[in-house]
Amino acid sequence: MTATPRPDSRPVPPGLHFIATPIGTARDITLRALDILAGADALAAEDTRSLRHLMEIHGVPLGGRPLLAYHDHNGAQMRPRILQMLAEGRSVAYASEAGTPLVADPGYQLARAAIAAGHPVHAAPGPSAVLAALTVAGLPTDRFLFAGFPPPSGNARRTWLAELSDVPATLVMYESPKRIGRLLTDLAETAGEDREAAVCRELTKRFEEIRRGTLKDLAAAFADQPVKGEIVLVVDRPRPRAADPAAVGAALADALTRMGVKQAAAEVAERFGLPRRAVYQMALDMEGRE
């Protein structure tokens, strides 16, 4: 196996550097991320043990540099210390436990505080469970919404699912393996049994699994199946509802009183999700009958 190139240990520019770290396979880290880890004045991490292990795998020495734990439970106490380092003109690299910082991971408040204080904030992009799942799900990617983790139960969960069901975009969400079966059942009830979806489990890892199908079929498949590992659920956008011809005709007639044929057809086609050419022909027929 080809060895990983040695990271560049040249100094990293002052500022806060967010680093995406592998979600499974250690070799998914980017060369730029390794350079920053090797050259930053100080390091911060959601899990310092995970970052130490990743650096050991890739031959990046910590040396005498500070390695600070920064997570949701100690952020208020640690932010002033990190901001002081930035104020001194030092470079600080921050890594979440896995994936891209700020995407369902700590770092948001740190980024906000650094920006508010006028410090440079940079990103070293790389691994992302959201983008990996979209890549392999086989569902539309031109417009998507990352919804994060659903509420675990109760009215908050029902409201959350109802609000998402009509969003005109592919949905991406995280869920606990203990609750994925219930989530699929709830989505089948609120969003529609025939909606296509993909359950992406353990992405980039040895036991990676992608299960595709309708929400109904996936809910049945995962109803009594014990599941382990990290899960990303991708759900197709709502299918267009069949437009009522009478409603389309009335809307087009109204639009023609306010604008030309082409503009009226475009407005109505977008409103009802219909092909523009078909609505344009309807508009021409209406104009011809008058």
Automatic annotation (TrEMBL):
GO BP term (any one): methylation
Catalytic activity: cytidine(1402) in 16S rRNA + S-adenosyl-L-methionine = 2'-O-methylcytidine(1402) in 16S rRNA + S-adenosyl-L-homocysteine + H(+)
Protein name, per record: Ribosomal RNA small subunit methyltransferase I
Designated gene of the protein: rsmI
Family: Belongs to the methyltransferase superfamily. RsmI family.
CDD domains recorded: RsmI (cd11648)
Organism (species): Ruixingdingia sedimenti
Every RsmI HTH domain range: 242-286
GO molecular-function term, one example from the UniProt record: methyltransferase activity
Domain Tetrapyrrole methylase: 16-219
EC number: 2.1.1.198
Its job: Catalyzes the 2'-O-methylation of the ribose of cytidine 1402 (C1402) in 16S rRNA.
Pfam families hit by this protein: RsmI_C (PF23016), TP_methylase (PF00590)
InterPro entries: 4pyrrol_Mease (IPR000878), 4pyrrol_Methylase_sf (IPR035996), 4pyrrole_Mease_sub1 (IPR014777), 4pyrrole_Mease_sub2 (IPR014776), rRNA_ssu_MeTfrase_I (IPR008189), RsmI_HTH (IPR053910)
Keywords from the UniProt entry: Cytoplasm, Methyltransferase, rRNA processing, S-adenosyl-L-methionine, Transferase
Domain of life: Bacteria
Gene3D superfamilies noted in UniProt: Cobalt-precorrin-4 Transmethylase, Domain 1 (3.40.1010.10), Methyltransferase, Cobalt-precorrin-4 Transmethylase, Domain 2 (3.30.950.10)
Subcellular location: Cytoplasm
Secreted among keywords: no
Signal peptide: none
